[in-house]
Amino acid sequence: MYLASKDLADLIIDKRGIEDDFSFYTVTDQANVSQPKGLFVPLNEESGELLDAIANGAIAAIWDHRKKLPQYTPNHFPVFFTNDNAEAIREIIKQYNEKLDGEMNSNMEITNFKITNKKLLNENKQTYDIAVILEKLTNKMANTSERRG
User: What is the value of pTM for the model shown?
Assistant: First the structure.
């Protein structure tokens, strides 16, 4: 079960772009990594440019509404605006974890969360929660792949 755009729409009201229901195969905070059908969530300046994220497969982004969206952003490209990207990713991971709870099976495809900014995850208690929830998701994915063998 993949993270769906409607899941984000339930969490983040302010958005623009295509409003069809589609799934995310990847969620990442790094523009320069492969992110097939990805959701790009820049957590700081080191996350990279939206253009690179799109080139690497991002099909939507979460964006801090206080920052100007780059002019090259396609009009149809889904963007979810928030006050705090770290809080948004924490809520997304929490909701996704709850969505998966008890519904894991050996053939299930799940969204791959690639949150690489470990320094940010350890800066405060709120972002530490991301690391804890992400670890639970990773363990679920590992248990699923072990059963596939």
Answer: 0.78
